[in-house]
Write a structure and sequence with these properties.
Elements: H1 3-22, E1 26-34, E2 37-45, E3 48-57, H2 65-68, H3 71-87, E4 94-104, E5 110-119
Parallel strand pairs: 3-4
Antiparallel strand pairs: 1-2, 2-3, 4-5
Length: 122
Amino acid sequence: MSIQSKRLGDEGEQIAYDHLLSLGWQMIERNFHSSQGEVDIIAKDGQFLVFVEVKNYSFASFGTPVGAVRAAKKKSIIHAASTYLHKKNISNVYCRFDVISIYRNFEGKMNIELYKDAFQMN
């Protein structure tokens, strides 16, 4: 990953974090790593413990951000989420996997979209 890509990713995660805070979510953790994956943001949305994948684009591409989260990426997010639950000894909680996308056009205008329950653990 290039330095510019890393910077764009970090900026996108901060924008997503701030957006979720503005929605009243309780932020718990960022960039949680397991041996086989990472969760960008872990937060509480009401009764749900939410594992959030951030997709940051500098332009609108073909397809949806949810579609950009391929099977291998879903598997790594799910692994990290399972590891988080195990390490924190969390059980009997409703969990959800969301994707938040940030599109930026050439003028810098942003469009933020939250896709709740974007994929399942099955």
